[in-house]
Amino acid sequence: MAIPAKNITADDGLPSDGTKRHRLLLVFAFFCLLFSGFLLAYRMGGPTPVLTPDTINDEKFIRTCLNDACYFTGMGTSSELLMHGANFIHFKTFLRFIGVSEDTLHIFLEFIFAFSVALTGIAGYRIAKSVGAGTSALMFAFLICTLAKDLSFHPAMTYNHRVIPFFGALFLLLAIKATREKSLLSLVLSGVVLGIGTNIHMQFLAGFPAIFVFGLFVRGFGAGLLGVLVATLTSFFTSFEAFLRNCAKILGIFSFSLFVSAQSGENATGFHLTNFLLISSLLILLAYVLVILVSNRKGGAKPAFFVPAIFVLFKVLFVVLASYLGMIGVDNKYFLEVLPALGVMGGVIVFEILHLLSGRLAYFISSSPIPLLLASFFLPLLPHPHYFELVGSDGLPHFTLKDMTSLQEYFQSLGWNLPKIITSVRGPSAPDIIDFFTTIDHNSKSDEPRPKDMAVLYIFKLKNEDIPETESLIVLSRDEYSSLVAIKEDSLLSIYDFDLCLKKPKEEQCSYKKVTFQDIFHAFPSPSKRLRGLLKVRFDVDFMADKRGKVIFMPKMKDRCNGKVLGIRGGSSRILEDGRMAILEPGGQEESGSIEFGWELGSEGCSAWGYKGAMPFFLELSGQEADKVIKIFKRLEEITVDRLEGGSNG
Amino acid sequence: MVRLIVVSTAMAIMFAVSCREKRAVQEQQAQISPEEMVLPPEVGQVVEKVIKGEELKQKMPSGWAIESVQIRGKEIVVTCTGQTGEQGEVVLGIKTTQAGVGGGKWFSIKVTGPEGLSVVGKEIDNAFETNPWKPPKREKPVLEEPAPQPGPLGPSPQSENSTLPMEGEKPHSFPKSVAFSGVVVQIAVVTFALVYALKD
Fold it and tell me: Are A333 and A323 in contact (CB under 8 A)?
């Protein structure tokens, strides 16, 4: 039977869902998509989550909430002015309470990712049938894989961003349903999902004007207001305190931005069109409008067609505006919730192009579940970073929960009590470990260190091929890619008793304050994007503790606060390599001396990301072993620099 | 659809109950001090593999051979004999504060006889990739809830995004039951929205 090609468009609902057998095949194809999505998520996310300062902060919150002190406010946002709701943290706390481990939560979040792939596919199917479904799911997964490569979306971190694509896909699906069926219930539900999503992550704010427009499509102005009202009330009821604070901040946001601009004479972050997803969104929006205009649509395009485009458009406007005002820097991570919409737009574009080429071909392909099955097949084959690559993406591999277990066993085997070890730990991930153990180990007892307890413990992960053959390096655990290693050294420095000062930019000098073991955690200034100044720390050096001397080395790490040795006194000690290295060496009759470190807070080498509000990182190593360890760190510096340059060129 | 929801809910409840039981066991294990740890029977397989291996035979002091191995709850005792019939003993025990000297990663190593026999202890110690010491099994787990401690724990936040509320602007805190009620309601609403969105 001949089919009139000119009438075949997705909007007309062609082809029909057909027989029961056809529908069953489609359901099967969507299950295949779900399975493939999970496979992809597992390949990227692995079996156990990685630990980062953010997840460790979540851990603190969970512990506090389990002790019956929960808050409505959660993590601070990137802009410093707004605050996320605590919904996701409460969710994590609830799971912890019923006994779900962090590993299980991680696997559950991988399943949630699979669900967002399937939901994107279904949203694509509602507009552009199986061609649209398959392409939407593929494109969405491709964008996620791209984001995972530069870690804007870390698929192995149990953090609120992991559920954002799911809420974005569900919101989109409900909004499409609302506009297609003129359904107020769907609109209300999409408002509820938007409200909850906003409390999980503030980047859903762009959905508020979008839902107003969707409401206009459904039942006019009143429905638009209803959508916004439902989303607002949901946001209010599920996290009222965060909601009120954020409203107050948003009202004053423009004046604040202008104030910051006036103070610094420039926008805080600036706006540069160097962002992959921003440019992609603009191009896809343009292509989308073009294909809808060009396609031979009978009676014009239906509102459901515009739902993903409107969602993306408002997102682009929000990000550009916020960036222009200096509230945030343009970053791929701010587009997480619109990735399903971008995927669906890609699906529609492909369908419409196919339709323009041949209506019969479009009908033939769209009437079978083959595109969906093909998408399921290709999904895990998309170029994506493997879990083990992700774990080691910043030069030094990330810690995982399994590493923490090994570490705890090691600490127990040493027979040290935990607080003593915590205060002795210094290393690339030291603040994380300090935080983690201080929080999780409520059984440990505080014990002030005795003068002889001057051991420092450096804990970090290295790729297996980077591990040097030194006797001082202890391998605590090893997997096929990386190893958790420790170096234990007797320190010459007075690590529990030092002088600290912060010289602010316009000040000539600063006055030192004495820091002892009791106030070590609260002595350092809190990290902030506006914190500027030279942080100076001065230790006494006891040359008698080890007469062979020590080497101080300060590696340049991307995610750490990098500093210099400012001064050194005693024996034949000296500063080398432009302050990055120092030799502590006794000489003559001098038994003691001092060393002063400096970190330029707010500079490129020590950003708000790098400085953690605790003692920044430096290594103190024994002379004979120092060369080998320093060599590894210098190699890691080169790798990081190569990656950064490669990234910026790309 | 209703059946699906009922079955899913029942499965979720069963999952939650099983997780809760597992957590109780984990909490019990967490309260055990290192001195109480014991060696499980599976340790024998690893030890057997080491003492039968060629690598150890090559490293043994010349003329010495392993005579017997005893694996007890708190120690592994390896008895060795020399060519002239003299005996030596290597005892791998739990690692304590004093165990720094002659200790491996997981065990303290005590050698009676020639010092070269310590290689037996080191090889056995190295054969374990993870800690072989496990908490003893108790019939009834005794749960002790930590004392309620209002306010944030630990040092000040160290992320770029501060998590816990700062001093001076501390928001209202509320018990976890309130938070959990909110979570359950939100899960229910999102599940309903999901089912409704999928319904065509």
Answer: no
Overall number of domains in chain B: 1
Q: Would you state the structure tokens that stand for residue A105, as one six-digit string?
A: 């939560």
Identify the closest residue of chain A to B170 by CA–CA distance: A71
Q: Is-contact B32 B135, C-beta < 8 A?
A: yes
pLDDT of residue A78: 64
Q: Is B165 on the interface with A (CB under 8 A)?
A: yes
Q: Which of A51, A58, A64 to mutate to test the interface with B (most CBs of B within 10 A)?
A: A64
Q: Is B16 on the interface with A (CB under 8 A)?
A: yes
In a domain, B183, yes or no: no
Q: Is B144 on the interface with A (CB under 8 A)?
A: no
What whole-number distance in Å separates Cα of residue A316 and Cα of residue A309?
10
Cα dist from B15 to A88, A98, A125, A209, whole Å:
20, 9, 33, 40
B73: amino acid identity, one letter:
G
Q: Does B38 map to a domain? A: no
Residue B7 touches chain A, beta carbons under 8 Å:
no
Please tell me which of the candidates B21, B105, B153 has its beta carbon nearest to residue A60: B153
Q: Please answer yes or no on whether A86 and B97 come within 8 Å at the CB atom.
A: no
Domain that residue B116 falls in: 43-127
**Mean pLDDT across the stretch A31-38?**
94
Beta bridge pairs of residue B173: A71
Residue listed under structure tokens 């991570």: A333
Helix (H), strand (E) at residue A340: helix A339-357
- Residue B61 in any domain: the answer is yes
Tell me the sheet residues that pair with A599.
A535
User: What is the ipTM metric for this complex?
Assistant: 0.74
Contact B34 A522 (CB under 8 A): no
Touching check for B1 and chain A: CB below 8 Å?
no
Shortest CA gap A593–chain B (Å): 30
C-alpha to C-alpha distance for B51 and B120, rounded to whole angstroms? 8
Taking only the tens place, the pLDDT of each residue in A229-281 is: 999 999 888 877 777 777 776 666 555 554 554 444 344 444 344 467 777 78
